[in-house]
Write a structure and sequence with these properties.
globular, alpha/beta, 8 strands, seven-stranded mixed β-sheet, about 15% strand, homohexamer
Chain lengths: ~250, ~250, ~250, ~250, ~250, ~250
């Protein structure tokens, strides 16, 4: 198959606000680190909110160390994720809601709704709707849609005004086919591939994933070109949408 | 729900080539007339190819006239569709392959492949993958994908070079839910709504559809705003994609 | 396509009990107002239960008025919905469980289960299984199925006997394709179209929806005839089922 | 779960025309024999059309006999199926189009279209859309939809007028879950269970299926009551629909 | 179709630990009794955990007796299920979490997670992901996946080590097509069919199900042979998987 | 997540006959080369049948050479594929049916049916059911199922006896999510990874795919361990099934 760069969509905008809601402290790095870096590089505001530190279920590297305890794991995760976010050019906040399982309490809901109201995101990135391996992830998906709905409500009490109808994009789960994930957008992250790599390398607790997600970005990069993207692209991230896009262009 | 214009994608491009493959001579008017007019208005090249005239199955208005015959129906349909295409700003070609059922012969395939090679479209618009009411429509879907594949083949003999990987967008079937159609793009056709209306009114053989598709465009227009599009939009057309889009923007 | 009235199912029965469970105080008007009016007109008992008033998320018209507060919104919604139900010929009850988000508490469950036991409905109408725009709606779907199950339990303590196996029909969400909604029944509401219109006009807080749902009823009416229904039909409502129907007739 | 007979749909009509399109000469007996007998018993016209005799792929009992040849198998199958149809109260016709694979030629299409035009069926029963075990079955599904579309075309030349929009119901494949078959209608065939049993017993070439389909009818009968049907029902057949039903009743 | 025993997978292993999580006290008997007996017979450890007794919703036989109360129903259910488990060769435990609805509390979660940690199962059997008739069943599905995830977490506090990645198999719901259940494994339970029958007969509260599930096992047995299994098989149980299997064999 | 090797299925068998049906001459190398090498290494018979050489659509490397013609491309492809099959330990046959599009003629059908009859495969490997990028691939899927059905027919004339019910496994398409491909089996090909690499390197016309499929095997290898497979596995291939497996083991 030949693959002329006939259908590349427009370039990265420069005035958007992006909110990434990450179930655990590291998910945003592996799965949306490229989008975060790309948008930050172009001057957009990128905010990460981590519902939990992933202290129990996604820190096996730390738990292998003798004498480890939860407080130490949380601190390490917070440090790593903060440095990774900084490397990507994103602000970060932690809700510390616990993991395995994540407790989607009313209090957690209030916090995310209020952040949505305050930030007024144009775009929200989060987990896919289904993940039989990780109920925290699929719970986060539904939780984000619920908070988006509340933040839209005219009668919800808040000092900030209601949000509009931000697009919701789902980043790629670890085993996409088992999660019903179908890419609808391949995002060219080649210009920031090195930035994402730096951020991933910061995540010491899950260092075995650096190669996995680097390979994945190359794989999505090959598909990027196959689907008509510019041949210069090498690394890409895949996203699925929840809602239809609007506008005046067919691609 | 509030609906701020927070997520509108970019404006209409100006240098694309669009190919619309219509099973019958009028399908493109009802279902993609807005896209055709919008792209033509912005200087893009828009080409329509009708596989058949829809002379048997989609011309009941004509067949109600006494003494009607196939040649007369075809001529009337050709005239109507040609005028509608002109009104939209599109070129048009007819393959006259018969309808109810459409015969997807090797000869028909050669013609469409050669046209794809000659036109080098960036975007192809055609029917949805499934339509239990109209097998000609779902047959056209598969046929277009097959011809696209052939036109991409390096070893396919032709005086024209292989095509790249044009995006394929599916326009809305008459009863979308029964066809598994899910809108992924709502296209703002408000600036050309009057042009589409003029084109639809030309289609005398199916005049009962003018109101139906005008209502539909308003319905999709309301949804356009609900999904974050600019509040000035009134009329829209819905499209589903076959392949992921590529680019540097999340929306 | 010709469209002879060859497959119309039987007429409206006269001795059924219909229960409509509406997430917010107005949903039943837009989406099932025709069914309610039609069944009431034929002497069936029609009962509406609104889980919340939709005071926060579905009353933007009211919130635009200066000095508005929740109590006033609730009262206005109660008044509107009560008058609309009366116009349709249905009884109505309000559970006032809050909205955006609706809290599906044990207490709410007890109330609906007890009402199901007391009313012994033959038919239950409620929301679709999935609605990414409105988690209250999809929550209501699951909640209704859960309450139906409890109300069937021989060992559930109540002064009323267990219910049988009432059919559950889902009315049409605002953006059906995004919700996986597929019409399995098109209900001819032409004889009560004016009644539904009157009821819709009562809903002052969401008056922009009157045209939207009037257009929708005409659209479904056209499809009604296309699917073999009597040509006299002009307005219809679409429903999806959860369980198979039983009986001695193929249509 | 209790199971009160709360939702039984109306009784069997008396003035319909039913057309059953069977890929092989025996399929209609196992899968729609109850519907055929029930409708015939109530005075409806029931017509069976067998596209092939199933002489190669569905007559293993006959092929085990020494010296068997195709002509003899066809004759035996024709005799059996004719007697079974007579037992059910249905007329029958054979197109002898060959099996394994069935050849869906233009000639075959002309015959079925013309029969549809001549019979003007209100209801068509045929195979499910997918069957990875039996491509003849899934081919027949698509073929029937295509012929229905052609028979509807105003411009299709025929001495008979176009058909309307007959409902299409799919009878149950041998392994329903593998075929994506979901029952939407459970038809009470208890009043004709003995008639169907007699018809099944006539099918000597596949006698091992008599028990299998008798058990299945009982299984569907239990589900019939579970889904709210009258408790007197013992045997049922399951059907899936292609198009929405129309009418004035919710069940 | 001929059906040579060409594709039978290997024999029953002898050193596995199987955990069956049953929403109500009897579900495991009807739906996984064959697997339990087969694995127990071969020396594997088989453990059943019943989240509730099904005292309200699945004991209608008992509730028909005058003067019945919940404590008596629970005791009867415990006795029956314990004897059935013993007949099958399985250990059993009861969590008594209530039914219709089952309350998936944190306490219940702690118990199942701790049991998973203690038992270290290789295989988990439980309910399907969706069951519109029985929300307790679909709730159990999600609950089991959640507990599995927690039991895998390195940082979850417990005296037992984390579990690995046990396979999860879903047993067959009462009306499989309505639950999206698709068999991926047909398990030959012929060698223990009499054991399962004995166990089913112990379940006095739901005796009407003995025939239903005996018929079902024969039906799955016929399909077993049709799908290439050994012709000696007569009874089978169907299972669907959640995760891909791993190994060095294609079947 | 920890990932103990708790659920590995049994080892590779030694007496099976495997038939791989490849649309184009190289597909089997990229997608099933590991399975072929693994089964061959264990003494099983592995046969490849290539429906076409992929001379037009999958030989762009060759067509870039000046003065290339179809006969030369075919010869090169035949040579490469023959050497690759030999490297894998498989026999190979070419049907030369043309590509882009592949013509699924009656003659082609006769050849594959006869080969199925002669080879009596226990296992068939072929393409997935859907591939919008490559209609030849999805056509091959349906064609293989059709030929399998014909080869099973007792009355199909042949000197070889009917086949049984061989399992059909689908190998991974190039962009699996777009093709509805869901892995149900991860096959450990680590012991033959070097053999597959050698075979891939022989395919000079598509050398850019060697890295892509090597990366993919590592990715599937990581998932292999994640899904409970032995930690020693490094490379894996993914397969989806068409039919349920049968046997006496749950995994």
């Amino acid at each position: 198959m030949t693959d002329e760069p006939s259908s590349a969509a427009g370039g990265t905008p420069t005035d958007r606000t992006v909110l990434i809601v990450s179930a655990h402290a590291a998910d945003f790095v592996w799965r949306a680190g490229g989008a975060a870096a790309l948008y930050a590089k172009h001057g957009n505001a990128v905010h990460v909110r981590c519902l939990s530190f992933g202290e129990r279920g996604e820190s096996q590297g730390l738990w292998k160390q003798p004498g480890m305890d939860v407080a130490t794991v949380k601190k390490a995760r917070r440090d790593e994720s903060s440095r990774a976010a900084a490397a990507l050019g994103a602000s970060i906040g932690f809700y510390d809601a616990g993991d395995y399982p994540l407790a989607f309490t009313e209090g957690l809901q209030d916090r995310l709704v209020e952040d949505m109201r305050a930030l007024q995101p144009d775009i929200i990135l989060t987990h896919a709707a289904r993940d039989p391996y990780n109920l925290d992830h699929q719970g986060t998906h539904e939780f984000v849609l619920r908070c988006r709905m509340i933040a839209q409500a005219a009668g919800h009490p808040s000092e900030h005004p209601p949000i509009g109808a931000p697009q919701v994009l789902l980043f790629e789960p670890h085993q996409p086919e088992q999660c019903g994930f179908v890419p609808q957008l391949l995002l060219d992250i080649s210009p920031v591939a090195d930035v994402k790599l730096d951020a991933m390398r910061i995540m010491g607790a899950q260092s075995h994933l650096v190669d996995y997600y680097t390979d994945l970005a190359r794989r999505r990069g090959v598909q990027y070109v196959r689907n008509g993207g510019d041949r210069s692209a090498v690394h890409a991230e895949a996203y699925q949408r929840v809602f239809p896009v609007t506008g005046g262009a067919l691609i």
